[in-house]
Fold:
Amino acid sequence: MKISLNWLKQYINLPESPTEIGDLLTHSGLEVEGLEEIESIKGGLKGLVIGEVLTCSKHPNADKLSVTTVDIGTEEASPIVCGAPNVAAGQKVVVATVNSMLYPSGGEPFKIKKAKIRGEVSMGMICAEDEIGLGASHDGIMVLDTDLPNGTPAADYFNLESDFVYEIGLTPNRADAASHLGTARDLKALFHREISLPSVEAFEIDNTSSKTKVTVENTEACPRYSALSITGVSVKESPDWLKTKLMTIGINPTNNVVDVTNYILHSLGQPMHAFDAAAITGDHIVVKTMPAGTKFTTLDEKERTLSDRDLMICNEKDGMCIAGVFGGIKSGVTEKTTNVFLESAYFSPDYIRKTAQTHQLKTDASFRYERGTDPNMTVYALKYAALLIKEVAGGQVSSEITDIYPDPIGPFEVPVTYRNINRLIGKTLSQDQIKDILISLDIEVSNETAEGFTAIVPPYRVDVQREADIVEEVLRIYGYNNIELKDTLSSTFLSEFPQRDADAIQLEISRLLAGSSYNEIVTNSLTKHTYAEATESLDDSQNVDILNFLSEDLNVMRQSLLFNGLEVIERNIKRRQTNLRLFEFGKTYHKVNDKYKERERLTLFITGNNTEENWLEKKREAHYFDLKTTISQLLNKFGIDNYETSESDSDLFAYGLTVSTRKKPLLTMGKVNAKLTKLCDVKQEVFMADIDWTFLQSLYPLGVDFRPISKFPEVKRDLSLVVDKAINFDQIRKLALKLERQLITRTSVFDVYEGDKIGENQKAYAISFFLQDQEKTLNDKVIDKTMNRLIQGFEKELGAIIRK
Structure:
């Protein structure tokens, strides 16, 4: 949003510097993102002064040139060679002094320099109006009628005044500030000054010859509709003052009537629309919604399909305007318009927001209506606009003001306590200070007691409807910078700190697993006591016994979810469902030193074929690495990339790994010991992961952690290493990261070989190393140096033989 300082000064006295005003606006919540000086004349006539021609004679070496001496307010008169035919002694003229820049109406800027013209010294230039950007005439120099002393800046003579334009990053809640008046209201409170609105006392009704009738059928969408008629207007280009105002804030002038409506919008924040009265068939305005599917062509010549929620301004036959959003192509004001119907309304923000979104129409009017305008501004804006239209386009007000407002919108009443104001601000303000700030913001204070009061908030402040909003208003005017920081900081917060929602996390992980073809199971917490006796990893002395058990199969609380999962697998296999992926969230129970402990676990099971046989590929049995892929997805989901792995020593598994992070075991995964699957009558391989769910939940990231994608390419290099059989890939990976942490982004194994082509107790790994620099493209020298360092490290630390 652009705000003109000169425009602001129409409402409030502002002797302060533009920078000081901008800083104060920013501190109060209207953040100034930019400040630009706008000159009404390019260059601002800097270096140009009023001079008096003392002498004028013909140039001795040129027939069309004159040699003059000009008094420009300095001790000595300046010699100037002039080519204008009308130059003469005694004239008051505009002189461009040496080193000044001129910006002509047509052509490139140029700098005035000391020169010799046909042998005569020239110390400046006597100017024509086109040479300084004041017009197009080049008939001769400008001759001024003035008593101003010589040397007076030309900008003073022409009353040039530069303007400063603020670019304000308006937050969505501050609809009230989307105008010069709205910004002035904040400055009123900040500077403790009064604001003054342009007077409309001169408004009068010239005649009542216009009989346009107005009917509002949908008062929910249009709570207030105000309008009047003006006849006999002359639609043409706007006067300079009006065009300058609009162009200063980036609005292109259209014609004098439309420009007035735009001027009112940016002055008062009240959108208006001017209709060509000749387009109002039947002399009847109807505010209503139209049937869904109705076609309507807008000012941009696009045909749009209306919904039954689009509020329209219609005549007796057709729609003329999408209310509060965009005008129609047939009803706009043009040079042929002589009679105008002027609308100033308050539309429901909900209706306008929906319509603007449906049709992807974002206009200055919809921007304000969809956030909430001032329902009490419509009639004043109408009178002010009528006076301006009469000033710039002529005509007469030819109707009474129509003002349909069946259910007036009242102010917001907000109960407030002084205690909460001071608690939330963090500083005790006097009651008088609080009331003075609110009153300066047009918020009345009523029902006052020693504890608090009721704030009566004007309806244009749609963002102030709660006690917290009142506190914010007090604080932003008092000044955030005026709240001292204590040695020991503490605060009261309106919102809570983000917390991990256990149910939400569990639901998210359930969806992740279900998306990977897992089915959730829920099993009984009661199980057989013999399961704990069958394995050393479970201590039967830690069984939580059921004193009044109903069955020998359900006489203790489970210490592991493994056997419940195996029972489910066995039941499914017997029913010919052999390819299974299962997961379960559940608790385990232990009795340790006469104390009972519950632990939350997550278990995953994979068994059978990983893929069914089809025309594209053969069936493949599930294996350990299918489970490992799922675990990698889980760890990635929780942002866990720093972890350690070690071989599992649990006899629950034939083989497996334990994953630890933050020096604490997180999960164990592997192939379930055949002795245990046989115990549950399962005759196919089962792979399981047992996860400490409580610990894993605590690692769930509260915020979004991201890294930008590097714009530099990734490089892949492969190595084949022959190492001792006892060395696994994880040892190689860790060593590689130890040798080169900066460039290696990932590693992967693409082949493992054991056979007669290498030693009996050896194994060959074919590994890909991916290298990438975040700041530059890698060259061969750096890549070769890195790979050589890895090779030497593998040879030294692992006794590796590099196959070539």
In short: Residues 213-404 form a domain with the Phenylalanyl-tRNA Synthetase; Chain B, domain 3 fold (CATH 3.50.40.10). The chain has six domains: 2-32+169-191, 42-157, 213-404, 412-478, 502-698, 715-803. The longest strand covers residues 580-592. The mean pLDDT is 91.
